[in-house]
Design a protein that fits this description.
CATH class: Alpha Beta
Number of strands: 8
Number of helices: 6
Number of domains: 1
Order of helices and strands: EEHHHEEHEHEHEE
Helix content: 25-40%
Radius of gyration: 16 Å
Distance between the termini: 17 Å
Shape: globular
CATH architecture: 3-Layer(aba) Sandwich
Largest sheet: 8 strands, mixed
Strand order of the largest sheet: 1-2-3-4-5-6-8-7
Length: about 200
């Protein structure tokens, strides 16, 4: 039976990189505002470089506020959030669990069995490429899904996000397929291309 990424064994992990202490732990309800701010800021910055119309419409629609109010904390156990902090300052987070979207099964083949999703992974701009924060969060998401009974991890992103695609490819994921997605944000419908990646045998 596939569990839904409830309470994984990770409780509090301290790692050092170049003398800097990085703390990974499950996020608490008291972190929600900081998580929301980081998500909005980081996602807006990256989307403005690829699909600015989508970035603007998403920001204006209240999407991020609704996402965090409705999904964190996850009362059904469908997702979990791990945060990364340096000197008690939130520098990144990842959210993972059951699939958020009905991805085309014919594109996934046998991989659809035992497939969990890395919903978000964001690092504050100043810390990107420093101290391995993104890599540590990626490993935490894989371990959390594995402990919950999943075998593979799905990640989706805007196709034109070359930085994200390079990061996930270096981490061991491969590009499975891309598809067009028409997204409604408020009274606007925006079209974007989504790239789907899979990390097998987590």
């Amino acid at each position: 039976m596939i569990l839904a990424a409830p309470n994984v064994a990770l409780r509090f992990v301290v790692e050092f990189m170049n003398g800097v202490e990085i703390r990974l732990s499950p996020a608490a309800i008291s972190d929600r505002e900081n998580l929301l701010h980081l998500h909005k800021t980081a996602r807006y910055e990256t989307d403005m470089e690829t699909v600015p119309e989508y970035a603007q419409a998403t920001m204006e629609s209240g999407y991020y506020e609704k996402l965090w109010n409705d999904n964190f904390p996850s009362t059904s156990g469908e997702s979990q959030v791990i945060k990364a902090a340096i000197s008690d300052h939130l520098v990144g987070f990842c959210r993972f669990g059951v699939l958020d979207y009905e991805y085309p099964n014919e594109k996934l083949g046998n991989l659809k069995n035992g497939l969990g999703e890395l919903h978000q992974l964001y690092v504050e701009k100043f810390y990107r490429g420093k101290y391995g924060v993104g890599e540590k969060l990626y490993r935490a998401a894989k371990e959390g899904l594995k402990q919950a009974g999943y075998r593979h991890m799905l990640i989706s992103m805007i196709e034109g996000n070359a930085v994200a695609r390079s990061f996930y490819e270096k981490a061991g994921a491969f590009h499975a397929y891309s598809y067009p997605d028409n997204v409604r944000r408020g009274d606007k419908v925006v079209r974007k291309m989504v790239a789907v990646y899979i990390h097998e045998n987590i």
